[in-house]
Amino acid sequence: MMKPNVYDQPYTEWKKWMKEQGEPAFRADQLMDWLYCKRVTAFEQMSNLSRDLREQLADSFTLDALETITAQQSVDGTVKFLFQLHDGHAIETVVMRHQYGNSVCVTTQVGCRIGCTFCASTLGGLKRNLTAGEVVAQVVAAQRYLDEAGERISSVVVMGIGEPFENYEATIGFIRIINDSRGLGIGQRHITVSTSGIVPSIYRFADEGLQVVLAISLHAPNQELRKKLMPVSRRYPLEKLLEACAVYEEKTGRRLTYEYALIGGKNDQSEHAHELGQLLADSGSLVNLIPVNYVPERNYTRTPRNQIFRFQRILESYRVKVTIRREHGSDIDAACGQLRAKHLQIEQRSS
Description:
Distance between the termini: 27 Å
Cofactor: [4Fe-4S] cluster
Domain Radical SAM core: 98-331
CATH superfamily of the largest domain: Aldolase class I
Protein name: Probable dual-specificity RNA methyltransferase RlmN
Strand order of the largest sheet: 1-2-3-4-7-8-9-10-11-12
CATH architecture of the largest domain: Alpha-Beta Barrel
Family: Belongs to the radical SAM superfamily. RlmN family.
Number of strands: 12
Shape: elongated
Helix content: 25-40%
Radius of gyration: 21 Å
Largest sheet: 10 strands, mixed
Oligomer: single chain
Structural class: alpha/beta
Enzyme class: transferase
């Protein structure tokens, strides 16, 4: 039987575990310090814990949640990691450098079943959910990488492979663990969760009392087009999604972000911009325009820059706040799921 991942345990559970071992409560604080501040890679490195306690930890938990298969580094400083899990599955994690700090993009599932036509993550379908600890381990691994340059993670985006709201409990557990001041201490307002629009989970998320940023993958201004690009819209139509978003904003007082991937000739025309502007006029929400990454399996083309700016100007004429996502890692396998898809193709050819 596989031992549980050490990063699956929140601080409250560590306090209980230490009590069960007959250890004082402050041992939980020491353990958190070793895991998240000193970021050790082996229990024997925890020098202020007794040998017996270190052996108990090693017997009960695993500390090697991820193994690096490969890491691609872009000229702009972006690093894309392909990690192997204990069962041989591969996932992606991306470290991105911005003027305002470093962000890490984490994965919540092995594969994805949502089926967005512009995304490489869905190729091969869903294999399994990650545990909260397997998501936490990605942030720890990213921070270990940044430690070498004396840098720190300033924000986390849950936008990697998978749909976070189809792995809801693990996603919430992950947020609470990385937010803990005894651990990585990443502020909730520096954490963004992106969903394709799982309506029941948006209502549920509104009641969690969290201050994280919620981003909605919209990608179309009407239901018919959205169904073609995002099959999830058949289950949760655009009208129902926007109703859930309105409730979320009312309950939390937090502004939503709408992500809109511009796909050449599909959803990037002036009429689409006008329709989107009318849909979100005076909502106070932010639209993040994303020039689509080229995915060979999908054969979608990128929207020309002048057309992206025209789309932005039209939205702004409806008093919608707009940003254009800066491109990261254009010289590596930048699209979400693309590095993993390439790895799977190589494995299939060699088997």
